[in-house]
Q: What sequence folds into this?
């Protein structure tokens, strides 16, 4: 059991302390409950652009000084954005805990006075380059974006990817940034997790010093997160500069943490991940019609996502790859999984979880996630329980109920010159 | 109590850091075994380092070392590929294998409660791989598909061409994964020969890190590996880099590109150089970390890129020095100009005390955060063995970095960076960038994707 202390400041900031002296380090990790889900059509890419802006200084921290303060004492840092959350983290030598708290509290409480048009213009260009580098200039780079476009109605918050569109990024104004900050970046919308080599009383005193004067905000805007049903499979074929056809599928699921999502996570291990897994064994090893296959669930809060993809071997029709995938899914649906397969899937979940706990940074992220999505940091102790309790029947039922054509969208990338 | 937010808080007294204690044993057959206990998590990482990699590949059989590595999990002892995966999965273990330029690797990560069983299977993979011919055909086909797909990956095209221009067809000049012709040439007898010649105990080290008892792990290693026969090693091929008398640009057209992938550099220096620590500091300051000159210039000052960096690839023999940056088409020329200006500036002796201290503090202070896990520790020990680092290397690392002066940084910049003799490879939209690049005053050679000159 991890030694957790979980409390709130008067302004609503949730604080989780995990004292651990195995390394002379401290992980300072903030999860804000805001992501691309909280954007509106025409203003996509904001949450992520905003993450970039938060590294460009605040009232008492100069432009680029955030990075410098952390790196110049041997700290490592970054931030990430997804549909439902944005996180900011630094791992510091433990005698620099106060520095981390000073920096994070300054950008939570004193960001707006330092905001300038010039900073926005630079970061807007950087983010556009990020989009080019990771989406537009790489083979299959827009696959996830295309699936989201197909899988959700235009007014639904998962319709667009976190990176946003070039057009919307270009349209972001200083006023937009100010409003976004005031709405979402506030102590009552965040969890601060500290892990490592500190004395809890001292850590509490410092947290109080740096964060307690930051005011809570008003009410949060409403987002309708009820997904409208697909009414049948949606498919597209996308000719693009790739050499081999690849099929991408997105299956709709209940949100992360739901028992069916847990069963889907285990089922994804039965289907892919090593040479004994169903899809890899059938498509790659035996039939040799695909060069690679993958199935996995995503950690999403509003609704669940089960992804599947496979690349056709040269000269193989992508339709044949899809048929082979469907045959394997049908086999699970009709015959279920073996006891050994279930054991292996559970082992993998256990090992992956142990690896996440092992490292301060990823452990802090787990705790932040449990707090942000489930309102309960202590779930970090019980997360694996439903995995252990899952049965072969659960996996079979989930395959039957969800891994069906009516519940999926499919985007197929094919070579444009073929 | 109120606080003064205007100044950064002062640190408390620093806490000591020690790299985990390492227990060593060398078996009679020459196999070295290293164990580092770390009981923070119920996990164990097991690694084999074989001190041969793609550096031994001949041009005709480029890709052999990595294909051999990839075939190791296709069956071992009495288990075929699927059975290996099944039995390891039942233990909660995962297996990996492969090769890079200087070495080949086998890894198993497992739960501490299944260490003994997983280690026995690991030993089978090391010593009794079946290397089946049918698997070679499949893995070869997958490799050919991977090479085919790289034709659309601008970064891969640029990296491949850059290496080739520096090293020619010899060691470090092809890619680790080979090319379509060489991969087609490789037969199962080549794979079995590579395995037999290089996967021998006197060419290897086994590293075990994590939640194990060191004595028991050493005893298990002795039981499983003591009767592995030693063998004489083939002579290592030497690199044959091309010499360069002036800078030139190589442009590879990719008409659909929305970014230019830029590589700028030349031959670097081997890992064994006595200037390693000075070079580490100099490169970190120049382009090795986020707050380095090149990244701050291209990204934070100009917004040309999502990230630019410089690297000295420290290998057994001299690896390349390279600056890499993906930038949007319109600012390709400007980006090249800025990078070259930074390469000149670092040689002129204007290193400021604060940036030097910041960089050294980063390198010294961040080390503990990169060795938190059993797998991290195992990785560091593999490095130590691969490059023959002294046993107290990690404990003395901070001291060695701390001793680097401004003079040292300027000295190695002048000695190892030559902005007037660089190879510049750009993969991008030629119709948009050709003309601006012409104003740089360097010859431009246009190549096709295979590296053939375009008339």
A:
């Amino acid at each position: 059991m991890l030694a957790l202390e979980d409390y709130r400041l008067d302004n609503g900031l949730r604080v989780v302390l995990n004292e651990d002296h195995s390394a002379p380090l401290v992980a300072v990790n903030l999860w804000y409950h805001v992501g691309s889900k909280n954007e509106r059509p025409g203003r996509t890419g904001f949450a992520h652009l905003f993450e970039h802006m938060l590294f460009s200084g605040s009232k008492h921290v100069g432009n680029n000084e955030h990075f410098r303060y952390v790196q110049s004492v041997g700290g490592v840092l970054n931030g990430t954005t997804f549909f439902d959350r944005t996180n900011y983290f630094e791992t510091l030598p433990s005698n620099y805990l106060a520095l981390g708290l000073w920096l994070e509290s300054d950008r939570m409480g004193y960001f707006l006075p330092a905001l300038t048009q010039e900073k926005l213009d630079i970061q807007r260009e950087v983010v556009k380059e990020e989009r080019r580098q990771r989406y537009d200039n790489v083979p299959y780079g827009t696959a996830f974006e295309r699936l989201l476009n197909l899988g959700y109605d235009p007014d639904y918050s998962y319709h667009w990817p976190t990176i946003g569109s070039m057009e919307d990024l270009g349209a972001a104004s200083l006023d937009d940034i100010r409003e976004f900050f005031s709405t979402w970046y506030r102590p009552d919308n965040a969890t601060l997790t500290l892990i490592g080599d500190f004395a809890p009383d001292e850590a509490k005193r410092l947290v109080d010093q740096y964060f307690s004067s930051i005011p809570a905000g008003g009410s949060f805007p409403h987002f309708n997160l009820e997904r409208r049903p697909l009414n049948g499979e949606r498919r597209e074929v996308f000719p693009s500069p790739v050499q081999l056809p690849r099929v991408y599928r997105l299956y709709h699921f209940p949100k992360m943490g739901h028992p069916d999502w847990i069963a889907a996570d285990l089922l994804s291990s039965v289907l892919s991940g090593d040479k004994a897994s169903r899809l890899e064994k059938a498509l790659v090893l035996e039939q040799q019609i695909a060069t690679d296959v993958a199935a996995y669930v995503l950690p999403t809060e509003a609704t669940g996502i089960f992804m599947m993809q496979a690349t056709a071997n040269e000269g193989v029709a992508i339709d044949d790859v899809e048929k082979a995938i469907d045959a394997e899914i049908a086999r699970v649906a009709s015959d279920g999984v073996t006891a050994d397969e279930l054991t292996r899937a559970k082992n993998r979940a256990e090992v992956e979880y142990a690896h996440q706990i092992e490292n301060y940074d990823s452990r802090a992220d787990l705790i932040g996630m449990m707090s942000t999505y489930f309102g309960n940091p202590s779930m970090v102790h019980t997360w694996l329980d439903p995995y252990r309790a899952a049965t072969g029947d659960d996996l079979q039922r989930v395959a039957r109920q969800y891994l069906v054509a009516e519940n999926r969208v499919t985007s197929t990338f094919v070579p444009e010159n073929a | 109590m109120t606080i003064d937010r205007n100044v950064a808080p002062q640190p408390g007294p620093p806490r000591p850091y020690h790299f985990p204690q390492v227990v060593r044993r060398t078996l009679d057959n020459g196999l070295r075994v290293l164990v580092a206990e770390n009981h923070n998590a119920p996990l164990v990482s097991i690694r084999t380092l074989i001190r041969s990699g793609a550096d031994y590949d001949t041009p005709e059989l480029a890709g052999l070392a990595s294909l051999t590595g990839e075939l190791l999990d296709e069956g071992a002892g009495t288990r075929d590929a699927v059975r290996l995966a099944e039995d390891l999965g039942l233990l909660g273990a995962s297996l990996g294998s492969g090769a890079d330029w200087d070495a080949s690797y086998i890894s198993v990560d497992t739960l501490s409660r299944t260490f003994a069983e997983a280690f026995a299977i690991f030993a089978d993979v090391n010593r009794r791989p079946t290397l089946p011919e049918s698997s070679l055909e499949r893995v070869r086909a997958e490799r050919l598909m991977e090479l085919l797909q790289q034709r659309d990956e601008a970064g891969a095209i640029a990296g491949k061409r850059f290496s080739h221009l520096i090293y020619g067809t010899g060691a470090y000049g092809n890619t680790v994964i080979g090319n379509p012709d060489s991969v087609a040439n490789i037969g199962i007898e080549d794979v079995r020969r590579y395995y037999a010649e290089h996967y021998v105990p006197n060419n290897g080290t086994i590293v075990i890190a994590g939640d194990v008892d060191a004595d028991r792990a050493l005893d298990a290693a002795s039981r499983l590996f003591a009767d592995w026969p030693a063998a004489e090693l083939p002579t290592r091929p030497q690199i044959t880099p091309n010499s360069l008398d002036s800078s030139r640009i190589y442009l590879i057209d990719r008409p659909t590109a929305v970014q230019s992938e830029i590589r700028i550099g030349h031959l670097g220096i081997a890992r064994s150089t006595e200037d390693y620590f000075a070079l580490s500091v100099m490169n970190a300051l120049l382009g090795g970390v986020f707050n380095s000159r090149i990244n701050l210039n291209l990204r934070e000052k100009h917004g040309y890129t999502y990230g630019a960096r410089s690297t000295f690839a420290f290998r057994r023999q001299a690896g390349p020095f390279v600056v890499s940056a993906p930038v949007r088409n319109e600012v390709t020329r400007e980006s090249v100009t800025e990078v070259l200006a930074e390469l000149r500036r670092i040689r002129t002796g204007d290193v400021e005390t604060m940036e030097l201290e910041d960089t050294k503090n980063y390198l010294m202070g961040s080390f503990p955060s990169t060795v938190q896990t059993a797998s991290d520790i195992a990785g560091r020990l593999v490095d130590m063995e691969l490059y023959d680092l002294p046993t107290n290397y990690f404990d003395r690392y901070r001291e060695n970095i701390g001793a680097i002066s401004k003079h040292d940084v300027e000295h190695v910049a002048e000695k190892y960076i030559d902005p007037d003799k660089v190879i510049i490879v750009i993969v991008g939209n030629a119709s948009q960038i050709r003309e601006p690049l012409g104003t740089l005053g360097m010859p431009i050679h246009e190549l096709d994707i295979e590296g053939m000159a375009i008339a």
Notes: The domain at 234-415 of chain A is CATH 3.30.830.10 (Cytochrome Bc1 Complex; Chain A, domain 1).
